Amino acid sequence: MTSEASVITNIIEDMSAEERTVKDPVCRMKLDERRIKKSLVHNGRKYYFCSVGCLAEFQRHPEDYVKSAQTEGEIKDV
Ligand SMILES: [Zn+2]
To answer: Disulfide check for 31: which of 5, 35, 42, 76 has CB 3.0–4.6 Å away?
Structure first.
């Protein structure tokens, strides 16, 4: 079993300097390395979450959150 602490350490080591602050795609909270609780790779991209709850929500509707992350700043009526 991998401990929670070492998982988080590995996440941080993966991050480049400018990625030290990331955004939770579900609650849109800015996360610094101390706040990241969970991460997930979806379509080759890594997402970070403040809580298990946000991770679970992302897994329920990943396309919603991936889409909103990509089109951030340009909201369109469909
Ligand atoms: Zn969150």
So the answer is: 35
For the chain, the structural domain boundaries read: 22-77
Q: Are 58 and 40 in contact (CB under 8 A)?
A: yes
59 — pLDDT class (breaks 50, 70, 90): very high
User: 54 C-alpha vs ligand 1 centroid, how far in Å?
Assistant: 5
**pLDDT over 70 percentage in the chain:** 60
DSSP 18: G
Instruction: Please list all protein residues whose beta carbon sits less than 5 angstroms from ligand 1, which is an ion.
Output: 24, 26-27, 50, 54
**Cα(57) to centroid(ligand 1), Å:** 9
Q: Rounded to 5 degrees, what are φ and ψ at 54?
A: -65, -40
